[in-house]
Write a structure and sequence with these properties.
The chain is α/β, with parallel strands linked by helices. The protein contains eight helices and twelve strands. Strands 6-9-10-3-11-12 form a six-stranded mixed beta sheet, with helices on both faces. Strands 2-1-4-5 form a four-stranded antiparallel beta sheet, with helices on one face. A two-stranded antiparallel sheet has the order 7-8. β4 and β5 form a beta hairpin. α4 crosses α5.
Amino acid sequence: MENILEMKNITKDFAGVKALDEVTLSVKEGTIHAICGENGAGKSTLMNILSGVYPHGTYKGEILIYGKLAVFKNIKASERAGITIIHQELSLIPELSITENVFLGNEVAKSGIINWTEAKKRAKKLMLQVHLEEDSDTLIKNMGVGKQQLVEIAKALSKNIKILILDEPTSALNEEESKHLLNLLFEMRSKGITCILISHKLKEVLSVADAVTIIRDGKTVETIYRKDGQDFTEERIIKAMVVVRSIPAIL
């Protein structure tokens, strides 16, 4: 199984503060790869670089897709390469329908005229893929967060993605919604889509991930793999995430 993604020596500063310090990440094609770390470790910053939120030139290091250097000047450039990110704060427009949101910026049109019949037809197919049982004309504001997440994923699938990045996707979901979303990751993996999952819910991570990369204080600590017979446990991840500071003896 080859690497679909390699990020080499990624370094990112914010006003003189080093958010990422020569971080490396290798992700195999068609896997679910989790990234774990404490708040502020640099997980989201790394994925914002990959998705073009922080464009090439604002960081040091290299991004390789299938071994070829990738230069993303913006989000559109990363999407053209098959990379889509779903942020913790969803980017849907509440006053628009499911169909309108799914194809926003990527309208089903000919000669500048939107074909709403075809758009709704395609939206319904995408909704079936994510098991979203709603009318495609339903407004986003009339849906719960769990279903809104599914709309975001349907929107991503409309772009023929190769890599889907999910940043804390279950943080606002109940147990049933979380289970549905995690099962959806398995389905996407079975179709060859590579998923990168940022999550602080380690039990969820261990239930779905093929590999886990731990980042601490802006640096890569290690990557552990489920199939290698390694210590693929919550205790191992927590130990790698947290710096144990010795307490000076009181004389």
